[in-house]
Amino acid sequence: MLHTSIELNQVFKGLGSHEQGATLHTYVIDNSPEVDMDRVRPSIIICPGGGYGFTSDREAEPVALAFAAEGYNAFVLRYSVSPSHYPQQLLEVSAAVAYVRRMAKIWHVDTDKIIVCGFSAGGHLAGHLGVSWQEQFIQDALELKEAENKPNAMILGYPVITSETFAHEGSFRNLLGESYEMDKEKVSLEVLVSELTPPAFIWHTFEDQAVPVENSMLFAQALKKYNIPFELHIYPKGGHGLSLCDQRTAKPDADYLVNTHVGTWFRLAIEWMNQL
Fold it and tell me: β-strand 153-157 against 200-205: which pairing, if any?
């Protein structure tokens, strides 16, 4: 397995020279002459949550390793957080998808199966790319080829979606800074869905007190409006930030982070992706 880190602002000058910068951590599976040297694999780019204030370790490497164990090339995007603001993060996740696509021959990537996966505020970032990848300002800033940054699908775990009634306000304030009141409608994902949005696998818990379940429901309704295929799972029990829902991502003395029923999301997501 190739495990390395790429500073994306060294590859895409349009990202600027921000103090934080975005780092893409790779978990790329080697091919073997004993199996198939020409095998190409689906790839998943993971955006950890953290309210756009940090990127959570619990939603990063353990998730990447879980997907790698299923035969996926996995990548963790450590994107810029506050005090960096929109659209910096959207440019960074665009660059990550484009870079994985450019490295397809070296990393044995199936370019028709590049999936973004995000949790909480990372779910907002992954979803934001899904609904906005085609924006001209992104294409121009990063000097992209046509659809080079388009994800083929999205996996969104307890995602931040709406900036309206059911908003996780802290995420949007971190994302927008002083322009929060003026620009919050511009980053409310349920109003940005279009016929160009890729399919989505979405999961949430009914009891989530941090990011209300209505976020996922609003996004699913928007996808249905444009006839975009999706799979939505709403689990009756469980709080926010469950990640893999088992000991791999649990903290000591935090029993609520272990929930075997909610943990079925991972196997369901694998099955869903295998059918894409």
Answer: parallel
Q: What is the pLDDT of residue 17?
A: 75
Q: What's the pTM value of the predicted model, to 2 decimals?
A: 0.97
CA distance 216 to 223: 11
One-letter identity of residue 126? A
pLDDT at 19 (0 to 100) = 67
Angle at 65 between CA 259 and CA 51, to 5 degrees: 65
Closest CA to 46 of 31, 33, 61: 61
**232-158-134-16 Cα dihedral, nearest 10 degrees:** -160
Contact present, 125 and 89 (Cβ < 8 Å): yes
Q: How far is CA 31 from CA 62, 71, 161, in A?
A: 22, 11, 38
Q: How would DSSP label each residue in 93-161?
A: HHHHHHHHHHTHHHHTEEEEEEEEEEETHHHHHHHHHHHHTT-HHHHHHHTPPTTTT--SEEEEES---
Q: CB–CB of 155/117 below 8 Å?
A: yes
Over residues 227-253, the pLDDT tens digits come to 999 999 999 999 999 999 999 999 998
C-alpha distances in angstroms, 71 versus 41, 158, 274? 7, 24, 11
- Tokens 């709403």 belong to 234
Q: Give the chain's residues under pLDDT 50.
A: none
Pairwise CA distance, residues 11 & 147, whole Å: 18
Are 190 and 217 contacting, i.e. CB atoms less than 8 angstroms apart? no
Give counts: helices (H), strands (E), the chain. 9, 8
